[in-house]
Design brief:
By secondary structure, this protein is an alpha/beta fold. It contains two helices and five strands.
């Protein structure tokens, strides 16, 4: 079981055909994104600056297509043989940017508990990915 203190819960989806550098670029953005409060209560600190951690959970359903019918299609999501290495690259890159990183288990059914101070939820997509 992976557990972190204050920081980021990242639900990571990988889209079919993402470039090999997309994971690294997205990890850098996550490490540097100023979304945590400073001493004045403004979103002005990154997870790295506040010495937070990250828990990264693989989540292929983020790329579900529910635009037709009653059952979502998952064609936009990368297949496991493409997504699992991208997930590992993202986690390694995030850690290399100074963010202690724990991982969910790829392909597993997981129970995820979250205490969300906010509400603050952000959707990031890899630049040029």
């Amino acid at each position: 079981m992976a557990r972190i203190g204050a920081g980021l819960l990242i639900l990571l989806g990988v889209k079919t055909g993402e470039s090999s550098g997309a994971s690294e670029r997205l990890a850098e953005r996550c490490a540097e994104l100023r979304i945590f409060e400073d001493g004045e209560g403004k979103m002005n600190r990154s997870v790295r600056e506040m010495e937070g951690e990250a828990l990264v959970v693989p989540q292929f359903t983020l790329y579900a297509d529910a635009s037709r019918g009653r059952r979502p299609g998952f064609e936009p999501a990368a297949r496991p043989e493409e997504a699992e290495p991208a997930f590992a690259r993202f986690c390694d890159a995030l850690a290399s940017h100074g963010v202690p990183t724990k991982r969910g288990k790829f392909g597993a059914t997981m129970e995820v508990d979250l205490v969300n101070r906010g509400p603050a939820t952000f959707l990031l997509e890899s630049p040029g990915g």
